[in-house]
Amino acid sequence: MSMHTVSLNKAYGGTQGVYRHASHETRTDMTFSVYVPPHAAGTRLPVVWYLSGLTCTHANVTEKGEFRSACAEFSLIFVAPDTSPRGEGVPGDPANAYDFGLGAGFYVDATQEPFARNYRMWSYVTEELPKLVAENFPVDASRQSILGHSMGGHGALTIALRHPDRYRSASAFAPIVAPSQVPWGIKALGGYLGDARQAWRKHDAVALIEDGARLSELLVDYGDADQFLTEQLRPELLQGACEKAKIPLTLRRQSGYDHSYYFISTFMADHLRWHAERLKG
Ligand SMILES: N[C@@H](CCC(=O)N[C@@H](CS)C(=O)NCC(=O)O)C(=O)O
What we know:
This protein has a nine-stranded mixed sheet, sandwiched between helices. The protein is an alpha/beta fold and 281 residues long. The protein has helices at residues 58-64, 68-74, 121-136, 151-162, 183-193, 205-210, 229-233, 235-245, 261-278; strands spanning 4-11, 14-22, 29-36, 45-51, 77-80, 139-149, 167-173, 218-223, 249-254. Belongs to the esterase D family.
């Protein structure tokens, strides 16, 4: 699998890169960013996957996430994929909707037309991109963690719940925890997966936990001034599911914070420290 370098910039002694490759999953070119911290030649480093929210590309967190200082301090590689396929012929014009189509892939493999051909973000993020990253960067694949924001928090939680042996830890900022029960999720899962709600359950963190999926622990932050909190995010549903399933959840309500990267960047280093502790050794 080949990729080409779009940009490389030295930062905190390491390298922030942006790369593009032809994806066989999405049948489009895909762009992603990777920060590699300073390290001794020949060493393999733990990797943290960051999944972004609605309307985002790799660039939002890369430019506004303020993760590099902590990644350099804790020796973490940080990978940020795009949130959907893009390009000529890809359906889902964002002029029609910001919450479905381009920039809103929801980390599922679509089964419905006309989306099934390109919208394969589940397989892209869990299979294709990890292989490409392992081939091209000094990652230790036995030490991986995943985190995300909003729609990307949904992606991080569902991916971690379905791959408990692959990721040592999972966390989220303001995640959509029960897409089957909120407007963003009902629109996206219905549009990509169809009306048969049974197929939605493996893309719904709360439903996965109800159906028996387990994680050793979870860290979730949200802001109490988040404009999406009560209608779309509903952290209390995750809290209830985790309590029932006895999954230790650290759920922090951050006073005055909204849904933006001002919130995410404030708590980014904290999450990365938490992951780094679990990625040791
Ligand atoms: N304000 C956005 C709503 C979507 C939104 O808040 N997106 C979040 C993720 S769910 C985000 O990170 N946006 C991009 C950014 O802040 O850079 C819009 O109406 O387009």
